[in-house]
Design brief:
The complex is a heterodimer. Chain A is of the alpha+beta class. Chain A has a domain of about 300 residues: Methylamine Dehydrogenase, Chain H. In chain A, the strands form 7 sheets. In chain A, strands 2-3-4-5-9 form a 5-stranded mixed beta sheet, with no helix packed on it. In chain A, a hairpin with a 5-residue loop joins strand 25 and strand 26. The radius of gyration of chain A is 25 Å and the shape is globular. The N and C termini of chain A lie far apart (about 90 Å). The relative contact order of chain A is 0.12. By secondary structure, chain B is mostly helical. A 4-stranded mixed beta sheet of chain B has the order 5-1-6-7, with helices on one face. In chain B, strands 2-4-3 form a 3-stranded antiparallel beta sheet. The longest helix of chain B is centred in the middle third of the chain and has 48 residues. Classes of the chains: A alpha+beta, B mainly alpha.
């Protein structure tokens, strides 16, 4: 028996020089491939449908004993997630094995914020019990799952008032807390290194810039967003909006851009240099946005809202590109992106930390090169044909729970009515007398120097 | 707040009594009064109301302030009468309170815009405001304060200073009041009370208060202190904290903003890159090689390592080979003698086994296949035969010959040398450049073989064919002379001519018979146009005609054979002016002539093309010979003779043949022939026709010569520059035509046009043709036909009597020019004939050019004839030009009108329907109304207008040959967007972006990858670090931005932006 194996001679397929043309093994004559647009359109349509079919974003849920108030990812360990809950309990989760590694016990009141150190072997948490605690956190080993051990805080910092939020510096041993004022602490000191106050209102959240680590921001209950620089003793700029901002996040790829989660259901991306107008307005939520976090790729971010949904936005997209919700998920208080940009964590009032795939339809396993290529081709097709009516409809369609749907509809009605009214006013006013502010500027009250 | 403050100020200014009465805030104090008891009873007047009988006291300013008052309020009235009440407030408060004030002034907008903030500010300023309030309230206690203050100053300054104080103050010095705050050095107000002196407490005051012994005790320090106080100048007061802080913040922000702008180029580059790639950055680190590679390059470089190396060396363990050797040695040492022997045996056995195996393999290798042996045997035999052949063995030679014969037969069967095998055809079809070297060589080999065989065959036939050809050539060159000037030229051997004619006759006969039985038809399927049914029909028809001709020719030949003279009566036939038909007939005749001419040749087996090629030269004289007989019949104007004239329609065709043929002749410089041909065709033809009327074909020969002579005399010689092309044949043929077409003018008006022109116009005998000489052809005129006729170039009246002679199917080439104006069949025919003649025979063209009036026409017709060149060569249907055929095929079609009609119908379907009122009897009109009512008329006009507008708005309104459908196509709609999507600004750009497919089937791999690369590429499971600043990358990006060179990917490797792929 003769066996004919498919083979190729290396000589034929190897170029002598890199400038040489690649040998083409197929005939690319367009006349041999007619109706290419129709073919690709059909492929795109199929790809869009398949994408929707495979869109199963929910991965797992980790249970706590009370509502989750804060989450933190470990900048050094991909498999680690820290979650703080309203009963003062902090749990360290090993994500792949879906088990709790440690329970960090000590806070006597609800934990309001938690953050990991840049080295990844410790975390700090703040609570309304007026303390900030520093905990050592172990790496998840290979040992089989056991009952989670309890651990005590390594360090304890006391403040005069309860704390609302905490964030750790991206390089040094410093962290910032928000409360009655913004404090910057050092691991080695029991008193804050510096305290920033601007006005009497308390700060709600604080976040360091990952790219320019000396810069950080806070949001305040006076509806302000304040910029700070660790090198100067005072805050450097304050932006006041019409509604309160609940959270803030810096783009890890773009040093001067940050996004705030506003109480008015929208998110605003600002360029730190031009605070008179938002760079982008992200909408789609129907209730206050509680938290947001950027993907480490800087190309998208995730936000959680009081309307019980989690949405993904493109860094420059006006509307969400993805929405996650489950039947039992309650108010979302905290969201985080995983350090590799592939997963999203959300902590909600229903005592669960949920894990979602950032790309809802992406396969989880390792892909063969051909599979990768097919995926890429399908995605490219969808990107190319996304404007065509049928594909657009399929790609954009998302099912949302009835309350969200209704609230969204109501919001649209209101917005439309406002727009209509404005049109009418303009129609019956002296031309130019009605000044229309763009939506990106409408909610800005002013800047304080 | 400000309101309260104002009240405070008011309180400070008013006399104490009045203020006490009106101040509502003094309610507590009022309790102490006698009114306390009546407090809850009916009150006449509330304190905040002025009593009805109240009269404001008119107090003179001078009287209002007594000395005591002056003493008390001197600071206000005297020191700064116009100053604000605030300044009257205690000094302890002074430093603090101006800040909120200034703050209010500085930030009006923020405060107004931010009610909450204002609130908070009020909270901050709460204590201050309370102080203000108390200023008003406690203004009564100011005296005590002043006293206390003065007392304190006194106490500090001591007795020395006391002497300088005012007597009033001295008076009150003793009465030291207790202070609100504990007295200490920290509570000393910086600013002295503004008591008119403006005195400030300084170091000198302190020193002055010292007693002399204390002073002396201070020693040199006292002097230093005094000097300090003298020298010390006031430093400008620092800015208020709030302003200072604001400035700091502003500076800090601006600094940050400026600094952070360095990221701009990087961020821009990353945003613009179609793909952003994140890598861990660990792939950049060089990977260590294998352990062996590491060990191979290892050299001990410190003491310990050297030591270890030495030990290893000593133990024989430096390399693996050494270790092996030493191990085997150790193993042998460890074995006993028996064991060693056993091992040796075992090894020996293994060795012998190996040897055996090797031998077996060698034997197997030697075994070959059957085919191999066959080939090998054959090769051996061949070798042996060769050797034997060299020795001269008869038998072997015969055997070889036999084998060669066999191979030849095989070759004939397989026809390998023709490359006609399936494989060879396939290979050739694929194209020579695609063949690999072996195939190419095989094909070449076959070709070479074929060539060789051909040569061999030619060599065998060489002698006869070449001699034949020479003969043919000789006869062709001299043929016309021999025949046309039969009597004149004596150098032509009569016998030879006779023989040749006979041979030609025989060949003609053969051809005719073959034509009749249809054996000469090209076999096999016709392709292209010729396979169309109407073409087939036309061919059939022509064939029929040709067969008729052939019959006639046969008959003629028979007659000729009978009396050695052409028959006077031509065979009868249908009168036809169809150019194609006539040319076909001419073709047939030509073929016949060729056959006649070369009947003696040994080329029977040659194919027609080759024959044709070879015999071209002889055709002219053949034609002449053939025509000579026919011409005689022409003047008779018999219906039957028309066919012969038709036959002579080959004047379309013959001249070119004559021309082609003339080439060798002209090369040989046959002047005699040229002389005969020098006459102008028109003149000669005319003469010929005239003569032909009178003479029989026998006498025609000399007269023809005469005609040529006349032609010579008439000065036409320079016109006929190509001597050979202007054949007698030509002249005769044209003349025959003319004589047929101009029966009336025949004989009288047909003369040399140039000579006859002036007279021709006047003496046109019947006046049937109106001739206008054209200096230049500028399109046809209605009622006139431009042509070259017997009277030269110009316009002829379109005479209805000539109309019937118009050919039903004209050659396309001449058709466009003569279509409208050229109804004249004569003109058309003559023109067609001339044109072709000119185009094909260069001489004819030159001849025409020689005519002064024919330059333009010559140019145009020459041009049109260029396309006809192919058609004119051998007059075979298959060789007619496609163009001509197409023109013939679609002669009756008015494609444009059809299309317009179709377009109208389609457009009418797409244009929106407009309701038009229609006149229904009894509807919309009054009874008995005759005319169309106005509304209906208007409605109709309106509808028409709308329709017109709709038609005009169509895209294809101005495009004559295009229908652009504007129907909304549901199927096509899904491939397009209703409007241009967001990032695009124009439809064209969007469409262009969609044009190129991105799939693998349509693109090479590299561009496929580029087009399908996702916008973000990241490695699964690797942490992506926040980006770090890289100065070099920022600069690169900036430069790249300037020249707008974009990368395909931007790479962030372990948080550091790196140069990606371009």
């Amino acid at each position: 028996m003769r066996i004919k194996a498919i083979n190729r001679s290396e000589e034929e397929c190897t170029r002598e020089r890199s400038q040489d043309l690649q040998k083409v093994h197929k005939n690319l004559d367009p006349s041999l491939h007619p109706l290419e647009k129709a073919t690709e359109y059909t492929r795109a349509l199929n790809a869009a449908k398949l994408e929707r079919i495979f869109a199963k974003p929910f991965v797992a849920a980790f249970a706590h004993d009370d509502g989750i108030t804060c989450l933190a990812k470990n900048p050094q360990r991909l498999n680690s997630l820290i979650a703080g809950s309203a009963d003062g309990d902090i749990r360290l989760w090993d994500i792949p094995s879906r088990r709790c590694l440690r329970r960090l016990v000590g806070h006597t009141a609800g934990v309001k914020g938690v953050a990991a150190t840049p080295s990844g072997d410790a975390c700090v948490s703040c609570s309304t019990d007026c303390t900030v605690r520093l905990w050592r956190i172990p790496a998840a080993g290979m040992q089989p799952a056991a009952e989670p051990q309890e651990a005590q805080a390594a360090l304890e910092f006391h403040g005069a008032n309860g704390f609302r939020a905490i964030d750790h510096h991206w390089q040094g041993d410093r962290f910032a807390t928000a409360g009655a004022q913004v404090d910057v602490w050092d691991h080695a000191r029991s008193e804050p290194m510096s305290t920033f106050r601007w006005g009497a209102e308390s700060a709600l959240s604080v976040r360091f810039n990952p790219v320019e680590p000396e810069i950080f921001t806070s949001t305040g209950s006076d509806r302000s967003i304040a910029l700070y620089d660790l090198r100067s003793s005072t805050p450097i700029r304050k932006l006041i909006m019409q509604t309160r901002s609940n959270a803030i996040a810096w783009n890890p790829l773009e040093a001067f851009n940050f996004t705030v989660a506003s109480e008015d259901c929208n998110l605003y991306t600002y360029d730190m240099r031009k605070l008179d107008m938002a760079a982008c307005l992200h909408q789609d939520f129907v209730s206050a946005v509680m938290d947001l976090d950027y993907s480490p790729t800087g190309r998208e971010f995730v936000a959680g809202s009081y309307d019980r949904s989690v949405r993904m936005f493109s860094y420059n997209g006006g509307h969400s590109k993805e929405v996650f919700h489950t039947k039992r998920m309650q108010r979302v208080f905290s969201v985080r992106f995983s350090a590799d940009g592939s997963y999203v964590f959300s902590g909600s009032d229903d005592m669960n930390v949920r894990i979602w795939k950032a790309d809802a339809s992406a396969p989880l396993g390792k892909l063969l090169p051909r599979q990768k290529q097919t995926q890429a081709y399908n995605q490219a097709l969808i990107r190319r044909f996304k404007h065509l009516p049928e594909i657009n409809r399929i790609v954009r369609h998302r099912h949302v729970p009835k309350p969200i749907y209704k609230a969204g509809k109501l919001r649209r009605t209101i917005v439309d009515a406002d727009a209509r009214k404005l049109q009418n006013v303009m129609k019956h006013s002296k031309p130019g007398s009605v000044k229309v502010k763009p939506a990106r500027q409408k909610k800005i009250v002013g800047q304080e120097e | 707040m400000s309101k309260k403050r104002k009240q405070g100020q008011l309180g400070a200014r008013l006399p104490r009594k009045a203020s006490k009465q009106t101040d509502v805030y003094e309610a507590e104090e009022a309790n102490d009064d006698e009114s306390n008891l009546r407090r809850f009873d009916a009150v006449e007047n509330y304190e905040y109301e002025t009593p009805s009988e109240f009269e404001d006291e008119e107090i003179d300013e001078d009287l209002a302030f007594t000395a005591e008052d002056e003493q008390q309020f001197g600071s206000i009235i005297g020191g700064s009468a116009a100053s604000d009440g605030e300044e009257a407030s205690p000094d302890a408060e002074g430093g603090f309170e101006e800040l909120p004030e200034s703050d209010d002034e500085e930030l009006p907008t923020s405060e107004a815009a931010d009610p909450l903030d204002q609130e908070s500010r009020e909270d901050i300023e709460g204590p201050a405001a309370a102080d203000h309030e108390s200023v008003g309230g406690r203004s009564a206690d100011e005296l005590e304060d002043d006293e206390a203050y003065n007392a304190m100053i006194q106490a500090v300054q001591g007795e020395a200073a006391a002497a300088t104080r005012a007597p009033q103050q001295q008076r009150r010095r003793e009465s030291v009041a207790t202070e609100a705050c504990p007295e200490s050095e920290y509570n000393v107000p910086l600013d002295s009370h503004a008591d008119g002196e403006g005195h400030e407490l300084d170091i000198r005051d302190m020193l002055r208060s010292l007693r002399p012994e204390q002073r002396s005790r201070m020693g040199p320090n006292r002097k230093r202190l005094e000097g300090l106080s003298k020298k010390g100048k006031a430093v400008a007061a620092p800015l208020p904290t709030l302003i200072r802080q604001r400035q700091e913040r502003k500076a800090g922000y601006e600094d940050r903003v400026e600094d952070i702008a360095k990221w701009q180029p990087i961020i821009k580059a990353n945003r613009e890159a179609p793909t952003l790639t994140f890598t861990t950055g660990q792939e950049r680190a060089a990977k260590p090689g294998s352990v062996a590679a590491l060990a191979a390059t290892f050299t001990p470089d410190n003491k310990m390592e050297a030591e270890i190396a030495a030990v290893l060396e000593k133990a024989g363990a430096t390399s693996s080979k050494q270790v092996e050797q030493s191990e085997s040695a150790a193993a042998l040492k460890a074995m006993s003698a028996d064991e060693a022997k056993e091992r040796q045996n075992r090894l020996a056995k293994m060795r012998s086994l190996l040897l055996h195996h090797e031998a077996k393999a060698r034997r197997l290798k030697a075994i070959k296949s059957k085919s191999f042996h066959r080939q090998a045997n054959r090769a051996a035999k061949r070798k042996a035969a060769k050797e034997a052949g060299a020795e001269g063995d008869e038998e072997v030679m015969r055997g070889m010959e036999e084998e060669a014969e066999f191979r030849r037969a095989q070759e004939r069967l397989t026809m390998k040398h023709r490359n006609s095998s399936k494989w060879a055809k396939h290979a050739l079809r694929r194209g020579a450049h695609l063949l690999d070297s072996s195939t190419k060589s095989a094909v070449n080999e076959q070709l070479r073989l074929g060539q060789e065989l051909k040569q061999k065959a030619e060599r065998v036939e060489g002698a006869s064919s070449s001699s034949d050809e020479d003969e043919g050539l000789a006869s062709s060159t001299s043929g016309s002379d021999g025949e046309t000037a039969e009597g004149i030229r004596a150098d032509r051997r009569e016998a030879r001519a006779e023989r040749r004619r006979k041979a030609a006759d025989a060949r003609t006969r053969r051809a005719a018979t073959s034509m009749l039985d249809g054996s000469d038809e090209p076999d096999g399927e016709q392709k292209g146009l010729f396979s169309l049914p109407f073409m087939k029909r036309a061919m059939e028809k022509r064939k029929l005609e040709a067969q008729q001709e052939a019959q006639e020719v046969l008959r003629e030949l028979d007659a000729e054979e009978g009396q050695e003279q052409p028959p006077s009566a031509a065979p009868s036939g249908r009168m036809s002016f169809t150019a194609a038909a006539s040319s076909q007939a001419a073709q047939e005749v030509t073929d016949l002539r060729q056959h006649l001419q070369h009947a003696d040749g040994s080329d029977a087996e040659e194919d027609q093309d080759a024959k044709h090629e070879r015999l071209k030269a002889a055709a002219a004289e053949d034609a002449a010979g053939a025509s000579s007989a026919a011409q005689a019949a022409l003047p008779d104007s018999l219906p039957g003779s028309a066919n012969l004239a038709d036959l002579l329609g080959w004047d379309d065709e013959t001249p070119d043949k004559a021309h082609v043929r003339s080439k060798p002749a002209s090369g040989k410089g046959r002047k005699q022939k040229s002389k005969a041909a020098q006459g102008d065709s028109g003149a000669t033809k005319a003469r010929k026709a005239q003569e032909d009327v009178q003479h029989s074909s026998v006498v025609a020969e000399p007269s023809r010569a005469e005609a040529s002579a006349v032609g010579c005399l008439s000065g036409e010689a320079p016109a006929g520059r190509d001597p050979v092309s202007m054949d007698g044949v030509l002249a005769r043929v044209a003349a025959a035509q003319r004589s047929r077409l101009f029966p009336a003018a025949n004989g009288t008006s047909s003369h040399d046009p140039l000579q006859q022109q002036p007279t021709a116009a006047g003496s046109a005998p019947n006046g049937s043709l109106d001739f206008i000489q054209a200096p230049q052809f500028s399109g046809s005129k209605p009622g006139y036909a431009f042509s070259k006729g017997p009277q030269g170039l110009g316009y002829y009246t379109e005479s209805s009597q000539l109309r019937p002679a118009q050919p039903s199917l004209q050659p396309t080439t001449s058709a466009p020019q003569h279509k409208d104006g050229l109804g004249n069949g004569v003109a058309a025919q003559a023109k067609g004939g001339k044109g072709k003649r000119r185009g094909m025979a260069n001489g004819a063209l030159q001849h025409d050019k020689g005519l002064p009036s024919a330059v333009d026409e010559g140019g145009s017709s020459g041009e049109e004839d260029g396309g006809l060149a192919g058609a004119m060569a051998p007059m075979k249907g298959a060789e007619m030009s496609q163009r001509e055929l197409v023109a013939q095929a679609f002669a009756g079609d008015d494609v444009e009108a059809d299309f317009q009609q179709m377009k109208d119908a389609e457009v009418a379907e797409e244009v929106p329907k407009v309701e038009e009122p229609s006149m229904l009897p009894g509807w919309g009109t009054w009874a008995g109304q005759q005319r169309e009512p106005k509304w209906m008329r208007d409605a109709r006009v309106k509808a028409q207008k709308e329709k017109d507008a709709a038609l005009k708005a169509r895209k294809d309104a101005k495009l004559k040959a295009v229908v652009v459908s504007e129907r909304w196509d549901k199927r096509a709609a899904k491939y397009g967007t209703p409007d241009v999507p967001f990032p695009f600004h124009s439809r064209a750009i969007y469409d262009q972006s969609m044009r190129q497919p991105i799939g693998k089937d349509y693109n090479p791999t590299s561009s496929y990858r580029d087009m399908t690369r996702p916008p973000v590429l990241k490695e699964a499971g690797s942490i992506i670090q926040p980006i770090q600043f890289s100065r070099s990358y920022a600069e690169q990006s900036k430069e790249r931005g300037a020249v707008s060179k974009r990368r395909k990917t931007a790479v962030v490797s372990g948080g550091v932006p790196a140069a990606g792929r371009r």
